[in-house]
Amino acid sequence: MELDGTPVSVVKTGGEVFAINDICSHANVSLSEGEVEDCQIECWLHGSAFDLRTGKPSGLPATRPVPVYPVKIEGDDVLVSLTQES
């Protein structure tokens, strides 16, 4: 999804909801097309994984983190703020 022109991936895993920038910091591809496991999202193209809490990569080829955003749940609504947490 895009919020004010910013690509954002919203992920629910382990009972928690996370919002992370949807573009891999290594290659200009969508992270939302990758697998989610152990609170990480993996880039489908080169295999870099990013922590959903911090945006930090866990291995090469990515070396730069991606932005993560605060999430608030209100009833059935998921609210995402584009103010970066990390």
TrEMBL record:
Keywords: 2Fe-2S, Iron, Iron-sulfur, Metal-binding. Gene3D superfamilies: Rieske [2Fe-2S] iron-sulphur domain (2.102.10.10). Pfam families: Rieske. Residues 1-80 form the Rieske domain. It comes from the Bacteria. CDD domains: Rieske_RO_ferredoxin. PANTHER family: 3-PHENYLPROPIONATE_CINNAMIC ACID DIOXYGENASE FERREDOXIN SUBUNIT, FERREDOXIN-RELATED. This is Non-heme iron oxygenase ferredoxin subunit. The lineage of its organism: Bacteria, Bacillati, Actinomycetota, Actinomycetes, Kitasatosporales.
